[in-house]
Amino acid sequence: MMVFARKHQTQPGEAMLIKTVLNKIERFKSFIYGSAQFLPVNGEDSLVIDIKPRRNSKPECPECGRRGKTYDTQAARLFEYVPIWAFKVFFRYAPRRVSCPVCGIKVEAMPWGYGKEQMTISYQVYLARWARRLSWKETADIFKTSWDSVFRAVQFVVDYGLANRNLEGVTEIGVDEIAVFKGHKYLTLVYQLNAGARRLLWCGPERRIKTLLRFFREFGKERSAKLKYVCSDMWVPYLKVIAKRAPNALSILDRFHIMRKFNEAIDEVRRSEAKEFKAAKQENVLEKGRWLLLKRPENLSEKQTSRLGDLLKLNLSSIKAYLLREDFQRFWEYQRSDFADKFLENWATRTLQTDLEPMKKVAKMLRSHKPMILNWFKAKGRLSSGAVEGLNLKAKLTIRKAYGFKSIKCLQVALFHTLGELPEPNSIHRFC
Ligand SMILES: [Zn+2]
Fold it and tell me: Which of 111, 248, 391, 415 has the fewest CB atoms lying closer than 10 Å?
């Protein structure tokens, strides 16, 4: 894979400069930088910097950290480092095998890397940082590396972050689910919603009782007991798990998930009405009307607003459903839960008198979950109405950007990477 033909040996002055820079960036105890030269690696001119053990230093056992005698020295290996001026950079080092009194004969620990990975830790952190800004494919293209290398880099950083993150002080969480891939696969996501500390805490495949049970098991009993608020969808099996596993938490049905039910109902009404138009061979005024009805009016463009105005003049079921939703928005503005309660009852009564079956279903659901919906007002001022929605949007964007993700595992890594607020491996120099 590599050619060790000498191409251009740096002059003493150049080598000095590179060493000076490297020592400023990253120093490894017990090792020193040697000469630097340009060599072709995989057919490409690369800067290769030798690393040597400090004189009289003993190799360190990778398993127990003890230092032992050198058993033998292996052939030199290359470790890819952060590129400079579009040149690939490699460390070249001949690993020693340590004779550890406890673990036996092992390849020594090297502080710039781990295991059989060819990329150095610094380079992996560097790639992972770019992979947060660009897609993984773009990152791979720019740094002339493979998609797989970028994935391994991100996975390393995520694994490190998960092992080293702090889970103290998590008192507010939200449970959300997202459809992934085509078909009906789901990921269940659990977010921390504490003000100033919003992040993805957990994600697992599927949307089943055992999925959420797994979260609580991994999160731990003690931490679960400290939860004060848990926001979720009104899916009964999940609500039961939450009641059981977070016994001290106020269970809240959050605004985002509730309004989503409205949108699903409006869309159902619109679809069946559009079908009727088609059957009666009438002009389909609802064609392309989907987003007009699902978006909040303040989010429409000028042109959309005037089209919506035209639609509102028609006596359509879809419009009636739309207006019922817009009317319900007032619910969230109440300060007192008893007033909100009265409003909800009123709204439900009116809705149940219509012939809009999907909306009537929403009304019944709101009534049957009323206490948990009203808990929203008890938590007011603590929970931001946009928190779950904001995280949900970011998660969806990550999934959309994740072109080329083949498995749930990749998606999980990507989601933790962008939404987990994870700590990174320490390094003294921030490359990007
Ligand atoms: Zn050992």
Answer: 248
Cβ count within 10 A of residue 409: 12
In the reported structure, the alpha carbon of residue 61 is separated from the centroid of ligand 1 by a whole-number distance in angstroms of 5
Q: Give me 174's structure tokens.
A: 């939200």
Identify the DSSP state of 296: -
Q: Strand pairing partners for 353? A: none
CB burial string 241-265: b at 16+ within 10 A, e below:
bbeebbeebbbbbbbbbbbebbbeb
pLDDT value, residue 402: 67
CA–centroid distance, residue 100 to ligand 1 (Å): 5
Tens of pLDDT, residue by residue over 21-61, are 888 888 998 999 999 999 999 999 999 999 999 998 999 99
Look at residues 264, 273, 261, 272 and name the one whose alpha carbon lies nearest to residue 314.
Answer: 273
Query: Which residues in 117-224 belong to E strands, given as ranges?
Result: 172-180, 185-192, 199-205
63 Cα: distance to centroid of ligand 1 (angstroms): 5
pLDDT < 50 stretches in the chain: 1-3, 5
Taking the centre of ligand 1 as the mean of its atom positions, its distance from the CA of residue 68, in whole angstroms, is 8
Give yes or no for a contact between 99 and 69, defined as CB atoms under 8 angstroms apart: yes
The C-alpha angle 404, 407, 411, rounded to 5 degrees, equals 80
Distance 53 CA to ligand 1 centre (A): 19
Over residues 225-255, the pLDDT tens digits come to 999 999 998 888 899 999 999 999 999 988 8
Instruction: Please tell me the distance from the alpha carbon of residue 252 to that of residue 239, in angstroms, as a whole number.
Output: 9
Could you tell me if residue 183 is left (phi over 0), alpha (psi between -120 and 50 degrees) or otherwise beta? left
Cα separation, 153 vs 146, in Å, equals 11
Residue 228 phi/psi, 5° resolution?
A: -100, -40
pTM of the predicted model, to two decimals? Answer: 0.84
Q: How many angstroms does the Cα of residue 105 sit away from the middle of ligand 1? A: 8
Distance from Cα 66 to the centre of ligand 1, integer Å: 6
DSSP state of 57: P
